[in-house]
Fold:
Amino acid sequence: MLPPWSFMSFSTFGLSDKIIRAVTECGYTEPTPIQSQAIPAVLAGGDLLAGAQTGTGKTAGFTLPILHRLSDKNVKGSSGGRAPIRALILVPTRELAAQVEESVCNYGKYLKLNSMIMIGGVNINPQISRLRGRVDILVATPGRLLDHVQQKTLSLSQIEILVLDEADRMLDMGFIRDIKKILALLPKKRQNLLFSATFSDEIQALADNLLDKPALIEVARRNAIAEMVTHVVHPVDRGRKRELLAHLIKQHRWSQVLVFTRTKHGANKLAEYLTANNIPSLAIHGNKSQTARTRALAEFKTGSLQVLVATDIAARGIDISELPHVVNFELPNVPEDYVHRIGRTGRAGSEGDAVSLVCIDEHKLLTGIERLIKRELTSEVIAGFEPDPSIKAEPIKNGRGGPSAAPSARNKSRKQTNNQKPTGRKPAGFGGGRSTSRSSGGRGR
Ligand code: AMP
Structure:
């Protein structure tokens, strides 16, 4: 089946031949809907507010025109000095930073532009050395970027283009203060691009502050989920979830499964259990070193690791083409996270399935998710794993013996998002935005 965007070609945008060549080598033949809309908008030089979730091809949507604009007007270092950093791409997580910088390298491989990744969790000194050389495009997470600013090893005074990627997640992670500090360091005259999968009032406020008469693009309905994904819920007792997961993986011979848990401790325990049951698994979460996270992700991507168990934050930015199976071992506390999790599968035209193991404690969470995505999820009891009707619901524990279901500090902003009634109205500022992606066709399954 051809993807629904198969009527355009990259050459229609006026991108340079070198960029087209690199894109062609990536195997892309047609632009995705977000690319069809974002590329001309960014090339035109104005600000952009884009509602697009991960998996839509948004990275190329902003990277390709940025590369074109920067290479079109090559800047030399003033009076023999170093050339300035001209584009800043801010992202919420290290994994996403790696992903985006890799895309910049791939799409810009025939251009004379240099990019750099700037993330925490690794030694700062090599980054300081790197900054002494030429860097045109900087892909950074906010915390480490501010470390450099404090150490006076970084100047952002000549940034021409700013991208806030996955802005909703940045706010969820409590980065708003850091973002404001960073914005204050940028020149007033610049192009701003804001990408977000969901739209809370906070995002709208940020957009109102940051953007000047932005072009509005929306390729996925608010909080929409990929239509290519099949969703199923398996009701099961809380004490039998891991057994059921091992059973499903073995029975269906799933070879590449991304599993979500609510806590870091839970991720570790589950990975240990699966490995002990001959299902090679590793956990990634915030307490793991960057090296361990990168290694686990690399093994998972190449297919040598069967199961990657992740917490929501750690999984952000994971991009594996055609990831077939995502399992919610536990439902997320915040319904929007279901959308983010499912964004890992059924990406850019491929199909996938999302399996949720739901125990009696999680019924409220399930209702919240169904309300958000405006769809009832199919429920299927697996023979041999029928829930015991005598088991009573218990409060959900977040973290090791932590308070039950209390919203954490980082979720404060999400509480607001959460409280918004899923009215289906367009986010303010998206007046004329038309849905054009596969995510909006209402092909519920
Ligand atoms: P993103 O939403 O930017 O994370 O991209 C999701 C996935 O889609 C990545 O694996 C990209 O390599 C892939 N992709 C991006 N643009 C295209 C395209 N025009 N055709 C096919 N795949 C694409």
